[in-house]
Amino acid sequence: MKQRVVFLHRKGMARAGSKIMRCDQLRDICEAHLGDEFDFRVRPMPPIREETDIQKVCGTVRGAIVILLKGAAVPLGDQGMEALRKSARGICIDYVDADAYRSFSPWADVHIGASHAGCRLLSNVLKKAGQNESDAPIMHLTHHADPRLDGLHIRHQQELRGVYMGHPSNVFIPPDIQGDVHVLKYENDLGIGGVFDNLLDFNLHYAVRAPALRPRITKEAKPFTKGFIAAAVGANILVPRATDDAVIYLGEDYPFLLENTEPNTIVEGLHQARDLFGTSAWSEATQRMEHIREITRPGRIANEMKDILALFR
Questions:
Q1: Strand arrangement, sheet containing 90-94
Q2: What does the pLDDT average to over 65-71?
Q3: CB–CB of 296/244 below 8 Å?
């Protein structure tokens, strides 16, 4: 009989991007590569109002390896997590980009970081909680680009074309270059096919977060998803050097790393990208992105998941 693996998320997260990618899409990736050995499922967790609700959750995952998405452990509380630990084969928490301190539970067997920065943060969380990593290991599970981008590639352009894909409130574009960075609005999965098709008309992805979203770095770590998306379609990326995992994946000498997020620095960075477009430096940067695409392909991510699940053998 196959070992069940259940991705458990709060019911209100059903349409959230992190749930779609780290539950639904990750389930599909794992099923395709590890389905002979494991049975992967996604389950919503109903609101926890009384003890019977905890019992229902425990009953649905009995004997399974449970992967809790982000803050799913919070409504269960200490009592609920203890009960879940007794019912399940094992418990993992996938912190993704959540407040790691708030999402932590001492009842988890494995703590999953979606980025290298996230794993470093989790190490601090465990130390503060007095928990030993040898008892509850921290495991890295690379965040993937959207699988629906598989087989897509940017269309040939004669000039630099910059784009930001996402919610407009999440990006900072200095006034001087607002006409040079197209904002491709993406808030949910409605019409995503058209959004992805439009994305192929741009060869430089812009990834500078809005200032209001930057200060929480001590409690949260973000996966390098913008970089993975750019790599998936063959584009380069303009991104601050301080962005979580940017240097790890791109390298210290990647030409489109911004030293800071001052408006003048960003403007100069975009102008430099325009000057380098079509040169050998641009081609070398593109090769770096091709390497990122290779090391974040679904098969490699499935192997990381296999290493995590092997801890419960």
A1: 38-45, 3-10, 65-69, 90-94, 110-113, 138-140
A2: 97
A3: no
The answer to whether 96 and 143 have CB atoms below 8 angstroms apart is yes
pLDDT score, position 300: 97
The count of residues in the chain is 313
Name the strand (E) or helix (H) holding 239. Answer: strand 236-240
Whole-number percent of the chain with pLDDT over 70: 96
Look at residue 192 in the predicted model and tell me its pLDDT: 80
239-247 long-range Cβ contacts below 8 angstroms, 24+ apart? 239/207, 239/208, 240/207, 240/208, 243/207, 243/209, 244/115, 244/116, 244/117, 244/118, 244/217, 245/115, 245/116, 245/117
Name the region of 183 (left: φ>0; alpha: ψ -120 to 50; beta: rest). beta
Tens digits of residue pLDDT in 131-150: 999 989 999 999 999 999 99
pLDDT digits (tens, 9 = 90+) for 174-209: 999 999 999 999 866 667 888 999 999 999 999 999
Residue 255 tokens, joined: 């030409």
Closest of 246, 250, 236 to residue 278, by C-alpha: 236
Its pTM surpasses 0.85: yes
Supply 105's token pair: 């539970």
- Nearest-angstrom CA–CA distance, 161 and 304: 35
The token duo for 87 is 């019912």
The per-residue pLDDT of the chain, averaged, comes to 95
pLDDT in tens, 247-298: 999 999 999 999 999 999 999 999 999 999 999 999 999 999 999 999 999 9
Domains annotated on the chain, with CATH: 3-144+297-312 (3.40.50.2000), 147-295 (3.40.50.2000)
Taking CA 153 as the corner, what is the angle to CA 157 and CA 294, rounded to the nearest 5 degrees?
A: 125
